[in-house]
Every structure is written in structure tokens, then in C-alpha cells.
Amino acid sequence: MKLARRLQAIKPSATLALNARAKALAASGKDVVVLAAGEPDFDTPEFVKQAAIEALRTGFTKYTATAGTPELREAICRKLEKDNGLKYAPEQVVVTAGGKQSLYNCFQALLDEGDEVIVFAPYWVSYPDMVHLAGGTPVIVPTREEDGYAPDPAAIQKALTPRTRALVLNSPANPTGAVYSRATLEAIADAVRGHDCLLVTDDMYEKLLYTGQPFLNIGNVAPDLLPRLLVSNGLSKSHAMTGWRLGYAAGPRALISGMQLVQDQSTSNASSITQKAALAALTGPTDTITSMVNEYRERRDLFVAGLNAIPGIRCRLPEGAFYAMADVRALLGKTYKGRPLADSLQLSEALLNDFLVAAVPGDPFGAPGYIRMSFVTSREVLQKGLTRLRDFVAALG
Ligand SMILES: Cc1ncc(COP(=O)(O)O)c(C=O)c1O
After folding, report:
1. Helices 344-355 and 14-27 meet at what angle, rounded to 10?
2. Does residue 99's CB lie within 6 angstroms of at least one atom of ligand 1?
3. Which of 176, 180, 185, 293 lies 20 to 30 Å (CA to CA) from residue 169?
4. Distance between CA 114 and CA 79 in Å, rounded?
5. 237 CB under 6 A from ligand 1?
């Protein structure tokens, strides 16, 4: 069957594909160490589940307004003001089925054919494809590990053209775990100030910060840019709610109305039950987040130290999120069972097939020569993963 032309530029999500293979191996009885997941291994907090149960009991099971219930939109405004110092009216907020839908709808509402969106590499795999799906062109601006993945302002200025409609910021970042400093955010603001484009900040990992410093959105350091800022966030990572599908976006009224229109004619509202759970999550206690972050920090320290102790693997300490991006370039060109490992895709395949460790190759994130491993699994499993990685490296010729 002939499918739409716009699908030709779209790649299936590499992380989902690798996870599916790892799960299939596990289902066949293999003891797979899965370091590919992008979701917390913790359960959703009990009080959040109770709110959903209450929603079911009281029959809160019907359509809501497309943009979300008034009470949830208000709670999101209070959250944005209290946690982020960003003031929005409820009409400037749209509730979506996950952070992914916020970003997708933003690009659908914003872009015309050939419009450009600046994305920093390494990037979350979905940004370029979402831009393609909206008919836009992602413009990839590389960043360097030695700069802490902070973008070079000169490179941003070079990438800006009359067709640039948006620039995507993601800090803490997937896949690098990098967190932008105040100085970096100021430098980005300076670079874009003279150019009328939207700033899309994907704050999905806002709560997963290990620096001891408060989270910063670019709107905090450059309030003059607030009229052209879209904040995207959600509960998937902060409240271990990946399956519930709850995201939200706040921004300029015209853009939010456009996003709402896209949603009106596609999915309508996020699940009514999930919205009740989200209201509880955003207004309830935060101790579960604190204990989750403390545990992630311990795991990060253990795992990254273990990776750096393996010859040929080098890993920068991530300041946020729950991913370790390891540089495996020293291993490329070596052979495994007589076959050369040309790139991180081949390396990940050998690692999964023969050593039962699922790690995502960096190539689909715009980071060739790297592999991404998440530390959202127990310390025992992380330790087992490290032992197998060491055995794998020792088996290379
Ligand atoms: C950087 C980033 N943004 C957004 C999302 C989407 O999250 P959600 O599951 O809420 O759609 C993810 C999920 O992995 C992510 O890593």
C-alpha cells in the first residue's frame, strides 16, 4: 500500500525497538539486563493511584474539555508559578496525553512546509521526527561532551535563518543527562534574542536533578523571552506515571489555541481518570520524588564509577535525568568473534545478543560512538550489567 510521503523521513523509535527485542529475549527465558528503558522502575505513588480509583468510583469517566479540566489547568498554573517562577493563566495551558503529545501538537500548530527547528545533538530521538511529521526541517546543531553539552552560541547564530521557527531546549537532557547552567541559558538567550523564533523547553526531567542547584528554565534568566516560550512538561518521569499518559504545555495564547485545535481534531482530552490522578500528583506530597531522586543519585554514582573502571569505556557524570552516555569510541574498530564492530549499533547488537545487556546505541540520538544506558533498575542489576560489560570488552579482539 502506498503510504504518505511525509512518513518516508520517519524512523521508528530506536529505544522502543531495542526494548522490544530485549523483552522478547527475556520472554524466551533469557536473563537480560535491560539498561535501555526510559521509565522509572518505581511504582506510581499510592496517593496518586487512590485519586484515580476515586475518579472511577465517582463516575468521572466521561469526556472533559479538550485542554483539560479547569481544576487541573489551574493546578498546573500554580505548579509553574511555585516551582518555576513562571506565571500563566489557565487559558495558556493545555493538558495532553504525555509530554510527547505536547511537543507533537506544538510542531503541528507551528510549522509550515520547510520551516526550520533547531535541535541540539545529542537529542531525544523524537524531536527530529516530530518536526518532519509536521512538514518541518530539523536543523541539527552539534554540541560537545567537553563543553558539558552546552551549545556554542556562535553555532546557534550560524544555524538561525529566516525560516527558523523554533529552537528546542532539553535540560536535564535525554540522552546526555546534561544540565544547562545559568550562564549557558543566558548565552542561548543572547544568541536567539534578535531572531523571532519560539523557544520550546522540554522540562520533562526537571525533578531529576543531582546538582543540588534549583532547576532553571530559560524564562527565569531571560524574562523578556517569555512571550515566545513554550514550556512542555509532564508527570511520566517525576511521578513514575509513564503509562498514565499525562503531559502539559504552557505558552503564548495563540499557540496554545492552535495546539488545542490540533488536539480537538485528533485525540480530544487526556484520560479523565488520569487527569484526576494528575491533580493529586501536582498538589500532593513530594517526598516520593525526593526519595526516588536520592536513589537515582546513588545508582548513578555506582554505575558511572563502574563504567569508568572498564578499559575502553568512558562516561561523563550526568547532572540530571537517569541516563549514562558512555563513550565507546575506543572499542570501535575492534573485533568480536572475528567480526569488526564498526559503530555503536553493531556494538549494542553484540552486547545484547551474546552478553544479554540491552544498551541503546547513540547513533539515533545524534551521538555516534556512544551508547546510552539508563540507571532505572536495581543496584544489583546495574552491578550485573557492569560485570557483563567488562566481560564483553575483554572478549574483543
Ligand atoms: C526528553 C523527553 N521528552 C519527552 C518525553 C515524553 O514523555 P511522555 O512519556 O510523557 O510522553 C520523553 C520520554 O522519554 C523524554 O525523554
Report:
1. 10
2. yes
3. 293
4. 36
5. no
The domains located in the chain, with CATH, are 5-43+288-394 (3.90.1150.10), 46-283 (3.40.640.10)
By three-state DSSP, how is residue 350 classified?
A: helix
- What are the b/e assignments for 239-263, b being 16+ CB within 10 Å? bbbbebbbbbbbbbeebbebbbebb
Q: Which atom, in ligand 1's list, is nearest to the CA of 38?
A: 14
Nearest in space to 343 (alpha carbons), one of 20, 14, 24, 23: 14
Distance CA 356, CA 140 (A): 33
pLDDT exceeds cutoff 90 at 8: no
Ligand 1 closest atom vs CA 124: 1
Each residue's pLDDT tens digit, 53-76: 999 999 999 999 999 999 999 999
Upstream peptide bond of 175 is cis (omega within 30 degrees of 0): yes
For the chain, give the percent of residues with pLDDT over 70. Answer: 99
What DSSP string runs through 151-205?
PPHHHHHHH--TTEEEEEE-SS-TTT-----HHHHHHHHHHHTTS--EEEEE-TT
What type of residue sits at position 25? Answer: L
C-alpha 365: how far from chain center: 11
Query: Quick check: CB of 124 below 6 Å from ligand 1?
Result: yes
Diameter over CA atoms, the chain: 64
Q: Is 122 in the pocket of ligand 1 (CB under 6 A)?
A: no
How much is the pLDDT for 10?
85
